[in-house]
Amino acid sequence: MVMCFVPNCRHYSERDSCKFFHFPKTRHEFDKWKKLISRADREPSQHSMVCSCHFPDGKREHGPAVILRSPNTRLLPASDRRLIRGIDPNDPNVKKFRGKPQLARYLGTGADISSFDYRTGKLIPGKLQKNKIRLRNDQIGQGKGKPDLNTSLPIRQTASIFKQPVTKVVNHSSSKVKADPHRAIDQPKQMLSSLWQLFWEKRLQGWSASDITEEILKSMDLPKGIQGVGPGWSAETLLSSLASALHTSSSSITGQMSAGVEKNPAIWLNTSQPLCKAFTVTDDDIRKQEERVQSIRKKLEQVLMADILASAEDIVDDESPLPEKMEED
């Protein structure tokens, strides 16, 4: 770390932001500097340095003649360098900024000081060129804009407070525009079906319904045309599979249509259909089922009528008068 050779100057090369200049190497120029910078304590050498605060504008192009001298034939000290640059800090019109952020707040958004070096007080050309290129690219990008994928009809912008429709004129009357959702937010949400384990109906084996007296109810008998499929199937498994398919599926029940189910049911099994072979319902089956329903309804009607008549007889018996002998007693 080198200190400035000028008397009363306490600037150091590694601490302060000002530049430092060596004494000239030629004897003639060296004597000129030595005459201007005179110290009683020591003599200068070619390794001695002078900070840029004692030069006009901090430059040294014109040699030692640019070094200013005070009235007492000495160099101006570093504390008076404001007089070299012609700035009086006591002037009320002078603005003082203690950092680059404070300067940016004062200038506002109208000035670009990103390429300004506060320590040296200069603009960095390379950084300024990068900022210009970036600003040009931003302007080009804003000019292009984004493609409008909306195919809906525009609304007429008039002074009326009511929106008026606009007629869309096309070259081909039969042309159709298909909605193509390009973005994720435009795509409809798809309801994913829940996962089912193969042959999960076999878990219901051994379970049966019972009445209030804990007596097991007799299960219904399936038609002979419905036959089970899969490993170790039983009538209970087949009935549970059909019941679950009727309650959970909205599609028609046709059974396993693939012929490969018999060979390898774990691969060719259709999980949306019950564990039974493919079957068809004929008109004869529908007619037999209707007749069975009609007969059961007639039996139910007879039972209900008998119950109503029995209840009416009980009411009549309760409202009939008592015999005369029982009244005298």
Measured by DSSP, the beta-strand proportion falls in under 5%
The main sheet comes to: 2 strands, antiparallel
Number of helices: 8
Poorly predicted residue ranges: 63-85
| Overall pLDDT level | 72
Could you spell the SSE succession in H and E letters? EHEHHEEHEEHHHH
Global outline? elongated
Distance between the termini: 142 Å
The share of residues in helices is: 25-40%
Alpha-beta classification: mainly alpha
In angstroms, what is the radius of gyration? 53 Å
Strands of the widest sheet, in order across it, are 1-2
Number of β-strand runs: 6
Keywords: DNA-binding, Metal-binding, Zinc, Zinc-finger
Domain THAP-type: 1-92
GO molecular function: methyl-CpG binding; zinc ion binding
GO cellular component, one term: nucleus
What does this structure look like?
The relative contact order is 0.05. The protein has helices at residues 27-36, 81-84, 100-107, 125-144, 235-248, 265-268, 283-319, 324-328, and strands at 20-22, 49-51, 116-117, 122-123, 155-156, 164-165. It contains eight helices and six strands; from the N terminus they run βαβααββαββαααα. A two-stranded antiparallel ribbon has the order 1-2. The protein has a two-stranded antiparallel ribbon with strand order 3-4. The termini are far apart. A hairpin with a 4-residue loop joins strand 3 and strand 4 (122-123). The longest helix has 37 residues, at 283-319. With 329 residues, it is mainly α. The radius of gyration is 53 Å and the shape is elongated. InterPro entries: DNA-bd_dom_sf, MBD2/MBD3_p55-bd, MeCpG-bd_2/3_C_dom, THAP_Znf, THAP_Znf_sf. Residues 1-92 form the THAP-type domain. It comes from Petromyzon marinus (Sea lamprey).
